[in-house]
């Protein structure tokens, strides 16, 4: 089943690492944003479903990853949320029901496994 992931991280090296890792999943598209504001614009303009929002928690700008996840959840309630952070576990404590968390740094296999678990939670068409 094809899927779309919206990847948001202000660190270009992290985005490139995640893009490379997710390319191993196949059958999907990854939309890339370097901050929450850009992610909102992409989400608003993208006509197809976005199955997963994979976002860093700590980012510059007016919205952090939690704020972005709440906003995307309001406009796209079907989108699964996967937060990532290299800072503290408080990021994981602030998860809403159904949201997932992965701690940075993570290995390619841990990222793929977590994303695959999130994709398996999607309703079957």
Q: State the secondary-structure class.
A: alpha/beta
Radius of gyration: 13 Å
Contiguous uncertain segments of 5+ residues: none
The proportion of strand residues reads: 15-25%
Q: N- to C-terminal separation?
A: 9 Å
Give the biggest sheet: 5 strands, parallel
The number of distinct helices, counting runs of at least 4 residues, comes to 5
Order of helices and strands: EHEHEHEHEH
Helix content: 40-55%
Can you count the beta strands?
Answer: 5
User: Please, what is the oligomeric state?
Assistant: single chain
Query: What is the mean pLDDT?
Result: 90
The gross shape turns out to be globular
Query: How are the strands of the biggest sheet laid out side by side?
Result: 2-1-3-4-5
Structural overview:
The protein is an alpha/beta fold and 125 residues long. It has a domain at 33-58 and 67-87 and 96-103. Helices cover 40% and strands 22% of the residues. It is built from 5 helices and 5 strands; from the N terminus they run βαβαβαβαβα. A 5-stranded parallel β-sheet has the order 2-1-3-4-5, sandwiched between helices. α1 (12-23) links the parallel β1 (3-8) and β2. α1 packs across α5. The chain is globular and about 35 Å long. The N and C termini lie close together (9 Å). The mean pLDDT is 90.
